[in-house]
Write a structure and sequence with these properties.
By secondary structure, the protein is of the alpha/beta class. The protein is built from 18 helices and 10 strands.
Length: 413
């Protein structure tokens, strides 16, 4: 790609690549400014499904058995389609092919046909804002305004204006300025980010606009807005606590999209790590950087409390420093020696669900044996099978180590 991009080609034709490399190739092309249309020659159905699910209008997949005339027709069609999609490069990428993310991607076209309000829920850092933009750019409003209002920040500014005695602008006012906010997004999409932070007055005003069915702009005109909302808090809980209006909740919850936390879709982690590696290489002017297999394994087993946002930040630091050593300890990331990882705890849960023997003593002993076996093997490998040194590190006698090697049937590979 380093040789391709500076040429600014009108079209890129890619031969047969592995599925993983094709995914990375397409995603990386789409984070470049003015990325060209792509024709991929492949018989792999996974690649065709990937292109269709992500709605890549500028990517075509053709069979290897096509005749030259058919290939020429596809190239012409791809170039013509690309020339009519001037704003396609503004559309964000939703990275991930896990069942959970594929379900969300396949929902977007149907969601846009309905044009109803949608509520996007997920933990902080899962990409709720990104999905909202994706929905907008995949709709027939993609060439219209996309306006995002961060609710916590909005009310923080409004209160600050009131305390300082300043005259609030039409954008920063309280509930009365909602009409002005809708005006900014006329014919486009309005995103109310972290909607759980809305004041009671603002909730009442928004509900009033819903009940009218239109948002008055003048005696003759009405405002046409597609409304999206996000929340990292379960709104149902706020409703139960009397902090959010039940009638407004039902209005917003017509279509609800749950974005799963990253720890519940670990199969997406390698692709996300590769995507952000390429993204930061491009931003920092680096030709290439490849994460080590050890780092990728650590990534796969990490809990990711900050979700995709945390992964992006960490990869950015690695690429900028050009070094992975020592970074994980600083950020309190678990290493390969942290045996009670999220994935290990998942194994315990599975064991409890399938085991008929629920004796706490039996379960504890069985699991500790597994951990001990793994620990002994790791220490032996780290010392290049120097048994005396390994015994010292494990704080056991040399004879005890030999017995455990025999008991666990460990062998120097």
């Amino acid at each position: 790609m380093d040789n391709i991009l500076p040429l600014k080609p009108d079209l890129v034709i890619a031969g047969s690549l592995s599925v993983e490399r094709t995914f990375r190739f397409i995603n990386t092309l789409h984070i470049t400014n003015g990325s060209p249309p792509v024709v991929i020659i492949s018989d792999d159905q996974q690649i065709t499904d990937f292109v269709c699910t992500n709605g890549f209008d500028d990517v075509s997949v053709i069979k290897e058995s096509l005749t030259p005339a058919e290939i020429k027709l596809t190239i012409r069609s791809t170039l013509e389609t690309n020339s009519t999609c001037d704003n396609q490069h503004d559309c964000p990428l939703i990275i991930g092919n896990s069942p959970e993310m594929l379900k969300i991607k396949r929902l977007v076209p149907e969601l846009n046909r309905l044009n109803e309000p949608a509520l996007i829920q997920g933990e902080s850092g899962t990409g709720k804002d990104l999905l909202a933009r994706f929905i907008h750019f995949k709709s027939n409003r993609n060439d219209k305004p996309f306006v995002k209002i961060n609710m916590p920040e909005f009310f923080k500014i409004s209160v600050g204006d009131a305390l300082s005695g300043a005259i609030p602008s039409p954008f920063h006012g309280a509930a009365a300025s909602l009409d002005n906010i809708f005006s900014l997004a006329h014919t486009g999409t309005l995103l109310l980010d972290e909607i759980g932070a809305m004041t009671a007055a603002f909730q009442a005003k928004l509900l009033q606009l819903f009940e009218k069915g239109v948002v008055p702009q003048s005696d003759k005109d009405v405002i046409d807005v597609r409304l999206l909302a996000t929340t990292s808090i379960e709104l149902g809980t706020l409703v139960e606590n009397g902090e959010f209006r039940k009638d407004l909740y039902y209005r917003l919850n017509v279509i609800k999209i749950e974005i799963p936390p990253l720890r519940k879709r670990p199969q997406d982690i390698p692709q996300l790590a590769d995507f952000y590696t390429d993204k930061f290489c491009l931003e920092l002017g680096k030709s290439h950087y490849e994460l080590s297999e050890k780092t990728k394994e650590i990534f796969y087993n990490y809990f990711w409390p900050g979700n995709v946002g945390e992964l992006e930040h960490l990869v950015g630091r690695i690429v900028s420093q050009g070094n992975e050593a020592g970074l994980f300890e600083k950020l309190n990331l678990q290493s390969e020696e942290d045996f009670f990882s999220f994935r290990e705890l998942a194994k315990v849960k599975k064991y409890l669900q399938t085991s008929k023997n629920l004796s706490l003593k039996h379960i504890a002993n069985n699991y500790l044996v597994q951990v001990e076996k793994r620990l002994v093997k790791k220490v032996l490998e780290s010392t290049n099978w120097n048994k005396r040194k390994a015994a010292v590190l494990l704080d056991i006698s040399y004879k005890s180590l030999l017995n455990k090697i025999k008991e666990y049937e460990l062998a120097h590979s």
